[in-house]
Specification:
eight-stranded parallel β-barrel, disordered N terminus, binds zinc ion
Length: 458
């Protein structure tokens, strides 16, 4: 969601006070290589987590109903370079109609086919264009992750509300004819006055109401089943999960399955980790995001020693450098991508970073490295203010050693690899060294200024 910067800042401050080093976790993981959670619900799709996710939108993509076609035109190229899934914005009609990015949902079943909220199409296009985009992604082996807003709704009419004694905007009469809502379906109501959070002043859905559960995930014509079976979505990105309890995500997932990731905007690792357990879903690794921000914007890479969700629970961590809400790691951003694409967790690439802002060849190289070399557990070999070196120990591949250099000059360092008397090379091509490791597995590697190198068996 937008407008959560304050929460982020508060969390960030909390993080500064509470973070501690966490070498214990790394030690534990050394014995059990982390494998990404796998989903393969449709024939021919790459398993989610075997590659890299593309966040296939930004704030604000061009309006006018062309975005689904733009995505359709890109999925073949993305698949070819190692993307395995795309995350798309909320697909149904929202209060701001043709201008909305979708986070103010009104009619969960209007994908650009009913004339309401100022337009027939959504900002992104028509229902046919949406389905064409999903099919094109599938034909290229990509899963499509839907953005699901369950906390709040927007665009209802005013009605007398017996639970508040006043009038509220809780009378929803969508033209799809599905999931009419009124005061009882929101907070406060006959069950309780609130859940874990509200977003702005939007009517806050009550997931304890049987009627709401039926329409969102339980019935055969629920949102979850319609999105999965009729539109063809494969997975779910749950918006603003601080606004309701984690059992809601688990109940949804128990009903329709699918890779699931929650937007829990908080840098607190224990909070992120306990949410992934309760929801039985992955979470975006905001702890990693804020640590990278500290490391790369504060010129102190030793911060990367600190705890992150991927260090706690790699199979449930979705890592990212930028998203549609926040873009703060702006110094030499490719170094942060070199970090997430060589480390554990399921990395996400932001559309604008890939298509417009960063060097696409370098990004493609890092995606290749992620998919072919970045397996197994992690050991940090060296970290100080301007350099960071870590080793992936391999899992059905050779593993790697990544050397991130945030200084203004070439650096070199002796490191301990897993390879004995073996010729290695830098798969980024930044260094032309091809050293042979000693019988005791030590070798000297180098990295260029404000850049990185990634070493593995030649
Ligand atoms: Zn933290
Ligand atoms: Zn409730
Ligand atoms: Zn809520």
């Amino acid at each position: 969601m937008k407008n959560l910067k304050l929460i982020g800042i508060v969390c960030f401050l909390f993080c500064l006070l509470s973070c501690s080093q966490d070498e214990v976790v790394l030690e534990q993981q050394a014995n059990q290589p982390a494998k990404p959670s796998i989903l393969n619900s449709k024939n021919g799709l790459k398993p989610i987590g075997s590659g890299v996710m593309m966040q296939a939108f930004y704030w604000d993509v061009p309006a006018g109903g062309t975005w689904w076609n733009t995505v359709s035109s890109k999925v073949a190229a993305w698949s070819n370079v190692g993307i395995d899934a795309i995350w798309v914005p909320p697909a149904s009609k929202a209060q701001n109609g043709p201008f909305s990015m979708g986070y103010d949902p009104f009619d969960y079943f209007d994908f650009g086919e009913y004339n309401q909220m100022g337009s027939i199409e959504t900002r992104f296009g028509s229902r046919a264009e949406l389905i064409n985009m999903v099919n094109t992604a599938h034909q290229n082996g990509l899963s499509v992750i839907a953005d699901i807003v369950l906390n709040h709704n927007s665009g209802g009419d005013s009605e007398a509300n017996p639970y508040t004694g006043g009038n509220t905007w809780t009378d929803f009469n969508p033209l799809s004819g599905k999931f009419y809502r009124s005061a009882t379906d929101f907070h406060a109501n006959n069950i309780h006055s609130n859940d874990s959070g509200v977003f702005g002043g939007f009517p806050d859905l009550c997931h304890n109401q049987t009627y709401v559960q039926d329409w969102l995930w339980k019935n055969s014509n629920s949102v979850a089943k319609y999105y999965k079976d009729v539109i063809g979505f494969d997975g779910w990105r749950f918006d603003y999960v601080k606004g309701f309890d984690p059992w809601v995500v688990k109940a949804w997932k128990d009903e329709v399955g699918g890779f699931s990731v929650g937007e829990l905007w908080d840098s607190n690792v224990s909070l992120l980790s306990s949410w992934t357990n309760s929801a039985d879903a992955s979470a975006f690794d905001f702890a990693c995001y804020y640590k990278m921000k500290d490391a790369f914007m504060g010129n102190n890479l030793s911060v990367l020693n600190d705890n992150m969700l991927w260090k706690q629970n790699a199979s449930k961590a979705v890592t990212f450098v930028t998203n549609h809400d926040t873009d703060e790691i702006t110094n030499n951003k490719i170094l942060a991508y070199a970090y997430i694409l060589t480390h554990e967790g399921y990395p996400t690439i932001f559309y604008k970073d890939y298509e417009e802002w960063l060097n696409k060849e370098r990004m493609n190289n890092l995606i290749w490295i992620h998919n072919n070399l970045a397996g197994g557990s992690t050991n940090i070999l060296h970290a100080d203010s301007d350099e960071y070196i870590a080793r992936r120990n391999g899992y059905n591949n050779s593993g790697l050693v990544v050397y991130i250099n945030n200084s203004n000059s070439w650096l070199e360092r002796w490191v301990e690899t897993n390879w004995s008397s073996t010729v290695i090379k830098d798969y980024t091509g930044h260094s032309n060294w091809e050293p042979t490791t000693q019988s005791g597995k030590w070798v000297k590697i180098q990295a260029p200024p404000k850049s990185y190198s990634v070493w593995s068996v030649k």
